[in-house]
Amino acid sequence: MSRKLTPRQAIARSFPTWDLPMADRLIKLLDHCGYEIVEKPHAEASLVPSVSDDEVVPHVEHSH
Fold it and tell me: What's the pTM value of the predicted model, to 2 decimals?
């Protein structure tokens, strides 16, 4: 059984020294901008977001 990280811990671990005060500031900024952190059911914390087929943007090549 793996230990589940809180949103604060998941954000803090992306900084070199598990910067919890920086994670708190980032969460506060996201909240101020209208974002909300929600937990996925039965998902482990990841630094790489999952992308569904609906979210994939096709590559368009520009001709010169």
Answer: 0.55
